[in-house]
User: Fold these one by one.
Assistant:
Number 1:
Amino acid sequence: MARLDRLLANLGYGSRREVQGLVRKGAVVFDGVAISDGGQKVAVVADLPARLTVEGVPVDPPAPLTLIMHKPLGVVCSHREPGRSVYELLPRRWRARMPGLSTIGRLDLDTTGLLLITDDGPLLHRVIAPRSQVAKRYVARLARPLRGDEAAIFAAGTLVLESEAEPLAPAVLEPLSDHEARLTITEGRYHQVRRMFAAVGNHVEALHRDQIGALSLPQDLAPGGWRILHPEEQTAVFA
């Protein structure tokens, strides 16, 4: 159970004083009845948006919340980096949610594709933990033709990136054409895919992530689009 004013403040609807103002206007309705006391307690359960409305609109889903997004080009995954961020593609009030939303790992400015965003700390850490070995699959368009030995080099588990001492875990390369390949990795080092191809004398011109674990980017999710992740999809991340 949670106090209504605190719950709505944590969901980004304003300060507790502002939420009390919404209550006084009759704008907060629970089970068809306007709330008269912002201190009323409600059960924070999955069906809350079906029972609670704010100004006639179903309340935003409570925590824990996980989203799947098709990250477009030209946006960053950080709250602190300059430039437009993925969080600006979400409802504005969601930036004030507590706990806050964070990306599960990052895609750089010039990388597109499957991105997960969550306020579920345990889920975030489980996905990115090295021991979980969650696979991430990318499609890379390359500046130069593949030489033919890249798959063996990446699979060996002996490749050491520039300025690092620890070799990479084995990765799986699947050539798609002379200038395009699909690469599956289980780590998340800084700019790893780009640096791997640089280590074998190539340059990534375009990079797209299409899968995490067994979860694929939905074909009907356009760049910049997002939706709430279904429970079975969350399970697929670890499949």
Number 2:
Amino acid sequence: MDKGGYENVEDVVRILEKLGQRLTPQRIIVAKIILENVKKHPSFKEIHAIASKQLPRLGVSTTYMIMKMLEEAGVITTFEANGETHIDSPHPHINIVCQDTGQIIDIEDNDLTNEVIQAITLASSKQGVSISKPVVIVKAHCTNGKQG
């Protein structure tokens, strides 16, 4: 497993079995698609479109429920950007959301990420807020900068 994430569908199957979830073909296919695409930060709509090619009768609500189940199991996390829900790896990192290109870039410097999350957690606790799942999103303009 890579940095707290899940690399293959067998890992996900084990997690779902431990949680007592049924292993339906839909769940396995959607999980596989998510794992194959998670680094690209696909939107929920993109995941459903890819899955629908393999499972033409797959409903939007079924895809959504599978995504939420995987999120609750800690396999993925989600965040909102550009008006859409995006899928992401659950390990701590910083997401740069390019406002002009729509691209999402991961900053995976563990020292920087840990410092940022600690600072946010400390500042939040002073306001009486307890952070359970930190997702750091930075909005930027990327047309003149590095694009991954």
Number 3:
Amino acid sequence: MSNYRNIGKLVASFGLKGELILQHSLGKRKSLKELELIFIEEKKGEMLPYFLESVTLKSEEELLIKLEGIHTKEAAKKIIQHEVWLSEEDFLKHAAKSTPIFWVGFQLVDDGKKIGEIKEVIEQPHQVLCRVDWNGKEALIPIHEQTLEKIDNKKKEIHVKLPDGLLEVYR
């Protein structure tokens, strides 16, 4: 799983010929031009490759995709709600550096002290939660306009000012 990056989920079928709607977190208006292959997690930790026949921009966060081998609405429905992944190489080509999912692998730094490496990013309407391992425990750290100080892409660091006592909850 370390060679793959989660980009979103198949949320619905579209039409009668097996097209699918991919809701993604790659950044605004990504069309995935030149992308040939995606991976769908059919079972936990089991990635199956699917070749893209076509990709059409539907909205800022949604793409209409057609996959090889999926030719009916019924076949498309079988993979709805499955997570979609890209290889690390394709992810780096297609993800906007400004999007939160690009932060996976960055160090989270609070007031000059490293908290830990960001393992997962969970986007919510008013904030982003970053999952880190802190002192041997999983911690969910909220990132929003009051806590975010700076993003250093060169050093791969996210600098935050967390509320007093937030990390104490995870002791």
